Amino acid sequence: MEASDRVTVRDRLVAAAVIVALAALALLIVLVFAFGRHDPSPPSLTKQPNASIPGELVFVDADGCIVRAAASGARSEQAYCLPNNIGGPIAWIDDHTVGIVMYDQRGAVLREIDLATKVERDTGRIVQPGKMPIDSSSVSVNGESVTVDKDGAVFVVKGGARTRIADFDVSEYNGPQPVIWSPDGAWILLQYYPRNSDGGNELWILSRDGQTRGTIATNARGQGVSWRIDGVGITPTLNFN
How many Cβ atoms sit within 10 Å of the Cβ of residue 113? Predict the structure, then answer.
């Protein structure tokens, strides 16, 4: 074999070795980043709707818009965007109207928004002295409450007894927090604050027995959520005169 041929073979072997090394490095980077971006969130309900979850939710998203969404994940829309991106806690009033808290010189004032006509009006209703504008009690119609331990374990509590129904693989002291029960007491809505997230907060739905779970939103603004089920009721309730 001539010297030039030996050089060509050597160059090819060196090039192949470089390619293999780069491929191994790329794989290592992918594995490191995948581990670093561990996601404890339940599966997306908007991608895989669950028809067993009843009713509709409303919440304010990171864009300052009121989102109306089927709790099943089957549909979701920005139904009304708030002027100047302001607004406080929100709650259903009926099947097409929501109440949202605005603050001015009178205090906490309730404004109604018709999601069908997009008409907003000042009701003049002022929050009752000594009360929060919206009752965000985490007690269900069955007298049950929810607690979450520092390690992400979720418990249903009734009569002093705690029943562990779910575990989420979250960082210590960064687990989901209970927000409201569904009006029928069969579902729990949790809010999760992902660390270093560029979006909003996540809203998770968990069944009373812990067997069914899903993520219904990833861009909530943290000003409350309201749940309505036809023929059953609305949670939470308003505390206005």
Answer: 23
* Calpha distance 202→200 (Å, rounded): 7
Residues paired with residue 148 on neighbouring β-strands, in sequence order = 154
Residue for token pair 């007491």: 185
Rounded to an integer, what distance in angstroms lies between the CA atom of residue 138 and that of residue 130? 19
Q: Is 105 left (phi over 0), alpha (psi -120 to 50) or beta?
A: alpha
**Structure confidence by residue, pLDDT tens digits, 31-49:** 434 444 467 899 999 999 9
pTM (two decimals)? 0.80
CA–CA dist 239, 241 (Å, integer):
7
Residue 176's alpha-carbon distances to 105, 147, 156, 203, 239, in angstroms, are: 35, 10, 14, 9, 26
Considering only residues 235 and 9, tell me which one the structure prediction assigns the higher pLDDT.
Answer: 235
First to last CA, the chain: 98
What 3-state DSSP class applies to 166? strand
Within 10 angstroms of residue 164's Cβ, the number of other Cβ atoms is: 11
